[in-house]
């Protein structure tokens, strides 16, 4: 089954070619021997623009179960595609497929298979790239290995083949729009010693900006170029890029329909999973009660303890309390009505008759009183309603 804790998978990248920066530190004894209180000012951040939006967002558990079953059914097929043939040409295709899995947001489902494939491929990387003159293929293979922490060379054995006699990148490369985007993405994974990638970044940026403006390429490739220029894949949020790439891949003439459907199922599953988590985080605020005024803390804690006590007594079918959750929901509605009255008073707002009737009907506490009386009936209420 899909692990809830493995929804992010791209590794942290560390290249031996990049030397760490060292800063000398010197300790000074305190003048007073006492710890001085920090006077650093922290900017007070504004409330989230989302507010309580996710509290009302609906998440269908049965839909998530269905999506998970469909994902689990397809996983063995894709795993077999990664682990199939061991020939050189097949390994090259599998590396390109790994890029697809990363871009479509599916890589976390196949971490072991991907790592095994990359170990095998890196051992014969020179043979794999020998004689390969397709810009997209070479750039994508480079991007995949660098992304997963392999220190693949960028020089003579890789990108020098795309330079002309004048030492600059060949102008004919512009005809391969997808290859140019791939080279642009690869150029963002350079180290301080990868001078050729600095040249590649400058070359591709200028040419891609020109390509996007001319309109000489298909609409979906133009969108892909603009998105890459705005935010390269390496720096983008995984799922933001995945959402963009699914749309791009769907418009590609030769796309794998099974992978595309798989990516959509997975994206929907993760979307629902994260909405559910956001609902939980929005509700989870253990320190909110501490921020209340002292007189409200007493009232809040008393009401909270009453509900918790009733809930613990009414867990079993034979419990003393009945429908604790129903009373709690009615109590929330009642409190919101009181807050609305308080807001009107604080802002000197005179509500219309209809507005007052709607809120005042709740504020008289008829519904919450009825729910509370049913709560105390316990077993008797169960028998009557049955």
TrEMBL record:
GO terms classed as biological process: sesquiterpene biosynthetic process; terpenoid biosynthetic process
Domain Terpene synthase metal-binding: 280-383
Pfam families with a match to the protein in the record: Terpene_synth, Terpene_synth_C
Keywords: Lyase, Magnesium, Manganese, Metal-binding
Superkingdom of origin organism: Eukaryota
Residue ranges annotated for the Terpene synthase N-terminal domain, each copy included: 49-229
GO MF, one example: terpene synthase activity
Family (UniProt): Belongs to the terpene synthase family. Tpsa subfamily.
Protein name as it appears in the record: Terpene synthase N-terminal domain-containing protein
Species this chain originates from: Brassica campestris
């Amino acid at each position: 089954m899909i692990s809830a804790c493995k929804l992010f998978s791209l590794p942290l990248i560390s290249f031996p070619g990049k030397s760490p920066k060292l800063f000398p530190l010197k300790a000074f004894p305190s003048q007073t021997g006492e710890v001085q209180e920090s006077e650093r000012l922290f900017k007070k951040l504004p409330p989230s623009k989302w507010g309580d939006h996710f509290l009302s967002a609906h998440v269908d558990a049965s839909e998530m179960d269905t999506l998970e079953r469909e994902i689990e059914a397809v996983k063995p097929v894709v795993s077999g595609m990664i682990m199939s043939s061991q020939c050189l040409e097949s390994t090259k295709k599998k590396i390109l497929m790994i890029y697809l899995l990363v871009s479509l947001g599916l890589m976390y489902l196949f971490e072991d298979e991907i790592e095994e494939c990359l170990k095998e491929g890196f051992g014969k990387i020179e043979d794999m790239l020998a004689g390969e003159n397709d810009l997209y293929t070479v750039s994508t293979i480079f991007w995949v290995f660098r992304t997963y922490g392999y220190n693949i060379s960028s020089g003579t054995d890789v990108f020098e083949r795309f330079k002309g006699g004048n030492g600059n990148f060949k102008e004919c490369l512009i005809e391969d729009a997808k290859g140019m985007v791939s080279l642009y993405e690869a150029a963002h994974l350079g180290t301080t010693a990868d001078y050729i990638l600095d040249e590649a970044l400058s070359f591709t940026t200028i040419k891609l900006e020109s390509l996007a403006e001319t309109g000489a390429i298909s609409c979906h490739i133009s969108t892909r170029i603009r998105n890459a220029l705005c935010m390269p894949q390496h720096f983008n949020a995984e799922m933001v890029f995945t959402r963009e790439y699914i749309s791009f891949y769907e418009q590609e003439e030769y796309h794998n329909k099974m992978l595309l459907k798989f990516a959509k199922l997975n994206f929907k599953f993760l979307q629902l999973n994260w909405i559910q988590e956001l609902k939980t985080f929005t509700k989870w605020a253990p320190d909110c009660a501490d921020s209340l005024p002292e007189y409200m803390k007493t009232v809040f804690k008393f009401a909270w303890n009453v509900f918790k006590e009733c809930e613990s007594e009414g867990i079993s079918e034979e419990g003393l309390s009945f429908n604790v959750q129903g009373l709690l929901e009615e109590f929330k509605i009642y409190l919101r009505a009181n807050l609305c009255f308080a807001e009107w008073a604080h802002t000197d707002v005179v509500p219309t008759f209809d507005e007052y009737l709607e809120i005042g009907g709740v504020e008289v506490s008829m519904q919450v009183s009825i729910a509370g009386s049913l709560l105390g009936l316990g077993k008797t209420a169960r028998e009557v309603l049955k």
